Amino acid sequence: MRALHYATLTVIAALCTAPLLFMVSMSLSSDATSARGEFSLFPTEWEFGNFVAAFTSDLPTGSFLLNSVILTGLAVAGQVFVSAMVAYAFARLRAPGKNALFVVLLSTLMLPAEITLIPQFTLFSELGWVDTLLPLIVPNFFGGAYNIFLMRQFVSRIPRELDEAASLDGLGYFRVFTRIVLPMMKPALIAVGIFTFSWNWGWFMGPLIYLSSQENMPLALGVQVMYATGGAGQAPPWNLVMVGSLLLTLPMIVVYFFGQKYMHELSVTAGSDQK
Cα(265)–Cα(253) distance, rounded to whole angstroms? Predict the structure, then answer.
């Protein structure tokens, strides 16, 4: 029975890995092979110069990548710290109407993004932020409802006696948060960081709505621009498009690989709470 389980998992893993292998094979194909569309699952050519050509073409691929790094880095920093701080306030501070406000926060999870799309665009347009990264970065510094909920549940598990002991030593709420609670939230912080990184690194719709200048575009939108560089009746430069797709895919794989143990720790913690 165990052998059947391993065989099934092996087949599923192969099916999930095949698109990535095909992407690598296409990214290493020559221009002639790309023009003919004669690709294979496993690489038969090794044109590593494609990775250089992607950055030396007429498109600002370097700017695409840099914008993605800036956008994602600031989004992760904003979501992790602000969501943790708001979660600590909901879990620890006493204030009238706190629970009602928390219910209102959770209710925003049921609102489709399309409902707020036009009001947000109008607001950012009035602020003069259209065609800049600000509409994509600034909202992250107000936290996210799901992230706040996740961190609040984690903070609720931390014994209040630690807060009380720190208060007796003269620490205020903010210093208790930064010195006592925040270091103990490491699994939740890393999990939220991974979620935020995955969302923003490959985010396409937001940049498509707010950005029009190529020098301001992140890589996710830049790959679409690469695809559109093929002329009328001509095939897109699939090898260069796949280079951009690899740059989108590999960082998320690496981040998840190094952060999966913390996500597992968070899921185990949540499971023990339910028991």
Answer: 19
